[in-house]
Amino acid sequence: MKLRVTPLNFAALFFVVLALITWIYKPIAITGRELANWTGTIAIIFLFFALSTFLLDGIFRNFFPQKKTLWTVEFSFLAITGIIYLLVK
Fold it and tell me: Strand ranges (DSSP E) for 32-89?
């Protein structure tokens, strides 16, 4: 499989970095004071998000072989996901 840079690759990298920061530094700003002991679990959840994002990127690559279409679909997916997150929050 050819390695191509896509928006979901950046999202997966973001989740991996968040997992490492949460696991190593145990920041209370991310987890909150009441969840200070749960940083390992939260880091594992971030790693799960990274894995699911990576797998979704593979699915999108199979359905959309053209690079321009792939970027458009992945940006749209990230935008819709962000909008839904903000509406639920």
Answer: none
